[in-house]
From TrEMBL:
InterPro entries: CdaR-like_regulators (IPR051448), CdaR_GGDEF (IPR041522), PucR_C-HTH_dom (IPR025736), PucR_C-HTH_sf (IPR042070). Belongs to the CdaR family. Residues 297-418 form the CdaR GGDEF-like domain. This is PucR family transcriptional regulator. Residues 473-531 form the PucR C-terminal helix-turn-helix domain. It comes from the Bacteria. Transmembrane segments: none annotated.
Length: 536
């Protein structure tokens, strides 16, 4: 079912001049915007009907292919950054010819911030929800509060990220903190430090009352009122009102109290929807990793490119110490992996499966070095040991060319973790190319361990002879083989005299009837004698 979308006019009214400016709209402003698409420079220019295409990295004329592709696909608009005002002329002409709206984005704006705000607006409340809420979505609420307070309003989450803001007709009224916050950057640190020092953030987390923050001209900060958005004792965010060219209204505090209560209901609903979305995402990721669900569902749900490089990181933890809560430890480890990975790759997707945690990294840069991935995994392993006291092992699956091949990357990562679990791979973080020989030997040993019929019964008899007589013939033969027949090297490793080693090797041949002069026999002995003594 096709969503009706948000009229381009309404999207522009909500985002406003702080982020985007309309350059041309050949099809008018009532064109519905149904989704947001991110077009990286490496992507083949594509678009979908009704999409707002963010042409990341394609400044100026480099965005022409994106404009033409958007026109062919009947996209709603294309957003680009301009290096100079003169670049707009050629782009406006191309946009008019393609029949697609052109938006210019301020150079300081963070693309991910614009993406999040646009998606939030497009996925805003349905008509029944808007009627029930009275104030509509958060942008409408911010605009309403601005009218009631005579101020400039922003709504933020608990991490001080701007969720919505009011429009301002005069940019001179906006101070540095407001401007930087809307563009997606953190406010001036000296001012934020003052807020922490004055206990403003603590007040907003714990109180329902409005707090006033005085003007600080030396920091470029004007007077503000703020209130916490709370659901019971749970903080959800804050509403800030900056004083502009005119003083704040007498009833500004009362308006903020009401707005905080309305916003609480909206944010609670948003959290519930997000929770449901997270569960669906995890189900789709798990299905893809296990091969039970194709890639199309996940790609459609998250807007991922089907034919972009991807890989899987896999983590496994040692058994928790005695007395530890297994479920709590697993949850803490999963949370730690999630935070560290998201800091390195914004599209990372987690899926705990049984005792392991898998991280799918979709849409990787084609030239991302394995050393970089190894560094990311090592950060996680070190943090788990330092903060949780948990020893993690990490395996780096190979890069695959599309989402459809993700199960292959997971399978390779599992092979490495399996070898680590059998004690055959020493590093805590490894890719298959780093430890291919160790992994293959480990898998051959696992095969010998599971299938007794594949073993040489004479070598099994040698291990049994050692158990009955308290000798070390099998160990000595293996050391001699590992040293490629260098008696002194093997004897030194066992801390015995070379003649003792020669005697033991001859005795092993006599006891079992094996002929170590034969290459095939030596190869089988090198493998089978590596099995645990009870399985040899």
């Amino acid at each position: 079912m096709t969503t009706p979308g948000l009229p381009l006019r309404q999207l522009l009214m909500s985002l406003g001049e702080p982020l985007v400016e309309l350059q041309t709209a050949p099809a008018g402003l009532d064109v519905p915007v149904r989704d947001v698409a991110i077009l990286d420079p490496e992507d083949t220019p594509t678009a979908g009907p009704g999409e707002l295409v963010l042409a990341i990295g394609a400044r100026g004329r480099a965005a022409l292919p994106a404009l033409r592709a958007a026109g062919r696909a009947k996209a709603a608009a294309v957003a680009v950054k301009l290096d100079s005002p003169g670049q707009a002329d050629a782009l406006r002409e191309a946009a008019a010819e393609a029949g697609v709206a052109l938006l210019s984005v301020r150079r300081e704006t963070r693309w991910e911030h614009l993406d999040a705000l646009a998606r939030a607006l497009i996925a805003g409340p349905t008509a029944p929800e808007a009627a029930e809420q009275g104030a509509g979505d958060l942008f409408s609420l911010a605009q309403t509060v601005a009218v009631l307070t005579h101020g400039i309003v922003s709504v933020e989450d608990t991490s001080s990220r701007v969720l919505a803001y009011s429009r301002s007709s005069d940019s001179d009224e906006v101070d540095d903190l407001r401007r930087l916050s809307i563009l997606g950057w953190q406010g001036p640190e000296p001012y934020l430090s003052k807020l922490r020092e004055w206990g403003v953030f603590q007040h907003l987390r714990t109180s329902d009352a409005v707090i006033e923050i005085a003007e600080h001209p030396e920091l470029g900060i004007r007077r503000r009122l703020a209130i916490g958005i709370r659901a019971g004792a749970q903080p959800l965010g804050t509403i800030w009102v900056q004083e502009g060219a005119q003083p704040l209204a007498d009833q500004a505090e009362q308006a903020l109290v009401g707005a905080a209560r309305v916003a609480a209901g909206q944010l609670v609903r948003r959290r519930r929807e997000l929770s449901a979305d997270v569960r669906l995402t995890q189900t789709l990721v798990t299905g893809l990793l296990e091969g039970s669900t194709g890639p199309q569902s996940l790609a459609t749900h998250l807007g991922l490119g089907l034919r972009r490089p991807a890989l899987v990181l896999a983590y496994a933890a040692d058994a928790p110490s005695e007395g530890s809560d297994l479920e709590l430890t697993r949850a803490e480890v999963t949370g730690l992996i999630s935070v560290h990975t998201a800091a390195r790759h914004r599209s990372a997707l987690l899926a705990p499966i049984e005792s392991r945690v898998y991280v799918l990294l979709p849409e990787l840069p084609p030239d991302l070095p394995t050393a970089t991935l190894r560094g990311w995994a090592q950060e996680v392993v070190a943090a788990a040991r330092e903060h949780l006291g948990v020893r993690l092992r990490a395996a780096i699956g190979p890069v695959v060319e599309s989402l459809a091949r993700v199960p292959d990357s997971r399978a390779q990562a599992d092979r490495i973790l399996d070898a680590m679990g059998r004690g055959r791979v020493a590093p805590q973080v490894a890719a298959l190319l780093d430890v291919q020989a160790e992994v293959l030997v480990s898998e051959v040993l696992a095969l010998l361990q599971e299938h007794a019929e594949l073993r040489d019964p004479r070598l099994t008899a040698l291990a049994e002879y050692d158990r009955r007589h308290g000798t070390r013939l099998a160990e000595s033969v293996l050391a001699w083989l590992d040293a490629l027949g260098e008696v002194r090297v093997a004897a030194d490793a066992l801390h015995i005299h070379p003649n003792t080693l020669r005697y033991r090797v001859r005795r092993a041949e006599q006891v079992t009837g094996i002929d170590l002069a034969q290459p095939q026999q030596r190869l089988l002995a090198m493998l089978q004698l590596r099995l645990p003594a009870e399985d040899t």
